[in-house]
Amino acid sequence: MVVFSILGTFIVAKRYYAVKERNKMKIIKASDYEQLSEKAAKITIELVKEKPDAVLGLATGGTPVLTYKLLVDYHRKLHMSFRDVKTINLDEYIGLPEDHPQSYHYFMYNKLFNHIDIRPENIHIPRGNARNLAEECIRYDEILEILHPIDLQLLGIGSNGHIGFNEPGTPFSKKTYITKLSTSTRKANERFFQEEETVPEYAITMGIASILKSKKILLLASGKSKAEAVKQLVLGEMDEQFPASALKQHDNVTILADNQALEELQKVKRI
Ligand code: GLP
Fold first, then answer.
1. Percentage helix, strand, coil, to 5, in the chain?
2. Contact by Cβ (8 Å): 249, 21
3. With 31 labelled, which of 60, 197, 220, 227 sits at a CA distance of 20 to 30 A?
4. N- to C-terminal Cα separation, the chain
5. Which among 129, 161, 151 has a CA at the least distance from the CA of 252?
6. From the CA of 144, how far away is ligand 1's center (Å)?
7. pLDDT at site 105
8. Which are the contacts of 213, defined by CB distance < 8 A and separation ≥ 6?
9. Ligand 1 centroid, distance to 230 Cα (angstroms)
10. Is 160 in the pocket of ligand 1 (CB under 6 A)?
């Protein structure tokens, strides 16, 4: 009897816990990709104005491209300074030279760092071509220890729910590690590579445990291809098969999504 009552309390508590977590994620709607990017850039700028030495966790992929362009515009046209900002990127492919057009080093310098006044020593991106990758993971975790807590972590989301390069099945307790990319992620990223090139099989990524230490997380989702993932993120349970669901543990997550990315969620939930 006692056992049943303890078990009952546990089940009720667990259910309550799950519901409570779902309510924590804030959703900001944007009409389209342009508006989403404007809102993301504004949130970032406001933080940097308030805290000029803010630590920004940065993402790559197609989604944040316009956000970065708008940050560059703020710098060029409105003299917004990023001098004391520190950045730490989520991930990098293994085996691509840093000057390869598809490396995340190239992406970040090309889209953002080369065009703002950030100090080079304040930029951190994992080295996917380090000779000793195990040591590189340790080095990156040491940097994270020094920089944490990240003030604002920008995230995209893969259609399979990946964040950074944390693929389905990744334990939520992971720090920086080498991951094998899933077939669906490699397929999704083929669009960035030349026809004769192959998408690398491995990547180095900040783990979910490190992402969760951030003070605030802003997840960007744009377009129809993200609509199922956004629905699952908002309505689904925490599940390691869907890495983004780890964010349900965090108490300051904002999903900034455009109409197309919200399409599936809006069919079943008023937001
Ligand atoms: C990539 C990156 C992620 C990114 C995601 C979505 O593979 N590793 O950091 O958020 O996939 O990318 P996109 O914005 O191009 O859809």
1. 45, 15, 35
2. yes
3. 60
4. 43
5. 151
6. 21
7. 98
8. 144, 148, 149, 150
9. 14
10. no
Residue-level pLDDT at 151 = 98
Write the single-letter amino acid at 6: I
Q: Whose CA is nearest to atom 10 of ligand 1?
A: 156
Amino acid 7: pLDDT: 46
Helical axes 65-78 vs 104-111, angle rounded to 10°: 30
Angstrom CA distances, 227 to 10, 45, 165, 239, stand at: 33, 27, 19, 18
**What does the pLDDT read at residue 23?**
52
Beta bridge pairs of residue 123: 87
Q: Which atom of ligand 1 is nearest to the CA of 164?
A: 9
Residues with a catalytic annotation lie at: 91, 160, 162, 167
Low-confidence ranges of the chain (pLDDT < 70): 1-23
- The C-alpha atoms of residue 73 and residue 237 are separated, in whole angstroms, by 39
β-sheet with 91-93: strand ranges across: 91-93, 202-205, 177-180
Regarding the beta carbon of 63 and ligand 1, being less than 6 Å apart is answered yes
Report cis status (omega within 30 of 0) of the bond before 120: no
Mutate to test the pocket of ligand 1, among 36, 58, 63 (most ligand atoms within 8 A of CB): 63
pTM summary value: 0.91
